[in-house]
Amino acid sequence: MTDLAPILSAAEKDFDQSLERLFTLCRIPSISTDPAHAADCDRAAAAIVADLSSMGFDAKARPTPGRPMVVEHYTPKDANAKTPHVLFYGHYDVQPADPLELWKTPPFAPQRRKDADGIERLYGRGTADDKGQFMTFVEAARAWITATGSLPIKATFLIEGEEESGSPSLVPFLKANRKELSCAVAFVCDTNMWDAKTPAITTRLRGLVHEEVTITGPRIDLHSGMYGGPAMNPIRVLSKVIAALHDKTGKITIPGFYDGVSPLPAATKKQWKALKFSDAKFLKEVGLTVPAGEKGKSVLEQIWARPTAEVNGVWGGYTGAGTKTVLPSQAHAKFTFRLVGKQDPEKVLKAFQAFVKARIPKDCKVTFSGRGGGSPATEIPENNPWISKSAAALKAEFKRDAVLMGSGGSIPICRSFKDILGMDSVLVGFGLNDDAIHSPNEKYNLASFQRGIRSWIRIIGGLAS
Amino acid sequence: MTDLAPILSAAEKDFDQSLERLFTLCRIPSISTDPAHAADCDRAAAAIVADLSSMGFDAKARPTPGRPMVVEHYTPKDANAKTPHVLFYGHYDVQPADPLELWKTPPFAPQRRKDADGIERLYGRGTADDKGQFMTFVEAARAWITATGSLPIKATFLIEGEEESGSPSLVPFLKANRKELSCAVAFVCDTNMWDAKTPAITTRLRGLVHEEVTITGPRIDLHSGMYGGPAMNPIRVLSKVIAALHDKTGKITIPGFYDGVSPLPAATKKQWKALKFSDAKFLKEVGLTVPAGEKGKSVLEQIWARPTAEVNGVWGGYTGAGTKTVLPSQAHAKFTFRLVGKQDPEKVLKAFQAFVKARIPKDCKVTFSGRGGGSPATEIPENNPWISKSAAALKAEFKRDAVLMGSGGSIPICRSFKDILGMDSVLVGFGLNDDAIHSPNEKYNLASFQRGIRSWIRIIGGLAS
Known about the structure:
2 copies of one chain form a homodimer. By secondary structure, chain A is α+β, with helices and mostly antiparallel strands. Chain A folds into 2 domains: 5-205 and 377-464, Zn peptidases (Aminopeptidase, 3-Layer(aba) Sandwich), CATH 3.40.630; 208-261 and 307-368, Alpha-Beta Plaits (2-Layer Sandwich). Helix content of chain A is 34%, strand content 20%. In chain A, β4 (111-114) and β5 form a beta hairpin. In chain A, α2 packs antiparallel against α4.
């Protein structure tokens, strides 16, 4: 195996530039969910192409019906039939930054700051999710090139720009380029460590279904004095739908919703218990004390192995300053469902739509955004050899065993990699629970970025040996 | 009694100018509920002062802690102890115009248009509520001055600028100027006719209480994958509150809410039945078919004699384009309660707050906007002599008896006139149910404006005789 010391040392010497390359990317508001930011997404793709090209790669921003897909294929000069070919996946799009007024520093003016606790952090939208994360493997590749002139493996980089809006262009792109993109395994850097000192590989991901509901009552907004009483208020109808979604024990009441959800095996339950996860500490960090999910399930089980029905947004009527005595024509809500086990996204979506329809009175209409789709949950076999190699590299860096954990989030891409390209995914990430991804003041610990780069240098070395 | 023919004729000759004076006022976006429009409200007050001054009055825009109060006192040269002194009340502020995209013509570019049904209408925010309405008595006064050189009565004009935001400055202003503003009776032009052919005087008004509720769960917005399940979602808590407000029969479930509500007397019930009001037609106009209020109560009874609990607006989480998998920190809703009979606003507000608090789980906090206040319902004795005189004048104009009706809306000022200044209010207005006040495409029929002016010319004449 190659001596990693000069490569780790090259990364260390170049670290200030690594940070500047990350910040260049974080300054671009590449919000894929908002059409107004389409050009920014394109700019971000171009910036990554420029970054990869600067280390001698021949990357391209490939067009899709949505945002471009950055693709780079690298083959070392001395490659042979035994040289492994792996894919590195990340996404350059970010979540919207609102509510803007809660950011302490502007979301798209990233900065490095030493906080009162003495820890240095990188603040800004995307510093963690996912620009900071995927730049760890990009910078690791750069260190390998700088120190040795090449990578010891064949590598395909695939950085997409629609992850935060459900990756609509990705599946068609994978299908259209099946042969070109099929590798031995995919490495995805979009997950968390167990804690700041303990690395982790995520082997369970929840699936995701989303739906937007609009309920219409009267054909126009009405004066609540003139019509209040006889005219049906769609906010009331919508509230009844939302209120009915969960019973008193936190169980979801949609008929058939739990089809395909198995009880957690006793062995896994025991393993997770051994992690000594503190429910109280987890909730306290976000200002809560009482687990709100299904009664009798631990927080880890709720997040890693149980499905959810969540309202992500609700609006209707007058929401400005002061009062307006309006009886609104419409009420809206955005819902997401996290899936586990063998839950079928299409079936869940249909069951939810039927659940809503059953609660619409004669005088109201309901419409669904009809985006449909969604992705089922994914579980990656823990005896996968790529996982063992990655775990060994992480242990070398952190001097601790990597925790094989679940994640409450959804990375549907893993499912597509398996179904379309036939490859498993290894999820190695360096985020922390308090990174505030999807929230104001998103951050990435400086150590996450630094040790993330070092970890990938070691993983790449391990793959070649 | 003065011959009214020359006065009616003066109004007719001047009608195009009357319309232009109204439009000048309607071009000012005097939205009192939005602090950004404070200067526009001040401009509207100045425009009314200029208008009144142009007919020789000595009007003033008097400062208040909020928007100015336009006040004018007129005494004819030949006034004696028997000359009645009446007050005319209106408001120059208007409702917000959103949703803007639903307006066919810009809300603050008023225009006169003949519609496909051959009826001429004035379109724009405030053409009815209340600029078009109060300008009917201003223009009637102008016609009297033009034709006879004076009014036959002592008149006080009081045009306020905060009616749409609860008139916070009015009560202190009335209290501070009790002697100056006390008249024999107040005429308020802010209500509807029975239908396009039948005039009406409104003798029952519902009271109003409003409250804004904010429920806070986690201290920041969370990723719905990372926290969905264990973290309480405040939208769910708020939805449960809203869903619990009414039972299956449409009754409001807040304990003590109906204290002070009496059953409708059999005689009144009979009277209202004789009006042959069509529930179906009333609902059809706004795209509905099924009365949503208390089962077993007619629509007229629901609007004129029953209280309501209504949600005027709701918002929380991500409400922009596309999806955002957020579990929000906060959810908000604006509520109004229409009161009848002897319901006590303070008691209703406290009972509602207790109802909400009882539904807040341990992990959530609730805050109330704390504006408090509100106004009880008002009923004006139907044997009041000013009502008889007004009814006679309306009959002379419309050749039909004026209907003595109720209104679902609230004009708290009537209550304050009674409590602070000791005078009853006579509510004569020329609006129609389809005026879309508080909605996009607000309008006032040209005939409402024209015959409104003629009616006030007659009422003023009748008061003097």
